[in-house]
């Protein structure tokens, strides 16, 4: 991973925008056309409920449920796309599958719908991956996730409200944690701007570093005085030139 990998592009906003618009489109269709789409959700430990692993993130029970999931999903997907561009699609796809399958395994015998499982995947992945990278920008992002979404941790326990799928939240959180280890991002490499940042840099060969002693104290190198030596041959030529020099006398009649 290089610092130049963090580049803004249209996809940073397009991905979360299209995803959120798709959620609202599905909800609008459910309102316009009679019927209940909840049966497309996850029904744990049933064959018919397996389809909900893929479909459940796009389904919501009411407009408040959809609104509460839209804002965090937009910002988290945007952050994922910006900071983990090459891994973003993989995290989204595997996050939906793993969190959905986990809900199918441990969920109560009821239909589980909503994108909250994916939100927990993103929160968990961005937090743990940033800590693992030890890179200051990603660690700062992890801390920001804790500040903004840290309170969500209480909704992974069974003691929450009955109409909240804590199983989906817990599955998403675990899935994000596992993906932070599975997804490889490479070690951060700071771009080299100066010669002394290169791994093969030798201070003893650097003209600037030669002005410092072993303790780091400034010790300027004394200037060398170079004396020109005149050879016998050069001296002979010089004397010959003087002997052969033409002397010109000027006569001034005004002074007489």
Helix segment count? 8
The CATH class name of the domain at 10-182 reads Mainly Alpha
Proper CATH architecture of the domain at 10-182: Up-down Bundle
**Could you tell me the number of beta strands?**
0
Shape, principal axes of CA atoms: elongated
GO biological process, one term: proteolysis
Main location: membrane
Membrane topology: Multi-pass membrane protein
Protein name: Membrane associated serine protease, rhomboid family
Helices and strands in order:
Layout: H1 10-32, H2 52-55, H3 63-83, H4 88-106, H5 116-133, H6 136-149, H7 166-182, H8 232-243
Helix pairs in contact: 1-3, 3-5, 4-5, 4-7, 5-6, 5-7
Provide structural commentary:
The structure is a single chain. The protein is an all-alpha fold and 256 residues long. The chain has a domain at 10-182: Rhomboid-like fold, CATH 1.20.1540.10. 50% of the residues lie in helices and 0% in strands. Helix 5 runs antiparallel to helix 6 and helix 5 (116-133) runs parallel beside helix 7 (166-182). The longest helix is centred in the N-terminal third of the chain and has 23 residues, at 10-32. The protein is elongated and about 95 Å long. 27% of the residues are buried.
